[in-house]
Amino acid sequence: EQPVLEPVLPAAAEEQNGTDSAKAPKVNCEERNTTGIERFTLQILNVSQDLMEFLNPNSSDCTLVLFYTPWCRFSASLAPHFNSLPRAFPTLRFLALDASQHSSLSTRFGTVAVPNILLFQGAKPMARFNHTDRTLETLKDFIFNQTGIEARSDVAVTEEDWEGPLPSVLTKGIDWLLLFSVLFLAAFVMYATVRTDSIRWLIPGQEHEHQE
């Protein structure tokens, strides 16, 4: 079943104060207990790990998930900014996965292009980050606008964020998503061509017309 992102709607309840009104968050996230957690970092899923195992459908906690590929220059430039987010929002969870290794998830959530960032509440995708300017500040604004959770003001991108855990250096590889798309398109064209020729032979009069 194709998941549907929740539409971004204006807040229903607003407090009138004569000049400005405060909007309620679009996604009401349950903030996790950070007691005993000393290091807030991004978790990267390997090829054998399923995203659904890390998302609790019976919970209202929120997780920001990044779909990337290690040979995409836009993913590499985003990496240090995304690496710093867990420190800015310690009560939220942050995951990243290689879209070329999880093609079924990419198809399921419509994340053919990378990098692609989805905000989940439980196991349900609620919003997609659509800005072309992918920096720590724009990511913080996106999370705040969706959840109402404010980022820690003392967090900035550091040298450690450039080193990992999400790689900021391009690696050579094959774009399996693009290759699969090209092969699928080629197979479809061949199938359509064969079917068209077969139908032509079945139509009365078409065989003689072909022979002439």
TrEMBL record:
Residues 2-148 form the Thioredoxin domain. The chain crosses the membrane at residues 176-194. It comes from the Eukaryota. One of its GO terms (cellular component) is cilium. The keyword Transmembrane applies. Gene3D superfamilies: Glutaredoxin. Signal peptide: none annotated. Keywords: Membrane, Transmembrane, Transmembrane helix. GO terms for biological process: cilium assembly. The keyword Transmembrane helix applies. Residues 1-23 are annotated as: Disordered. InterPro entries: Thioredoxin-like_sf, Thioredoxin_domain, TXNDC15. Pfam families: Thioredoxin (PF00085). This is TXD15 protein.
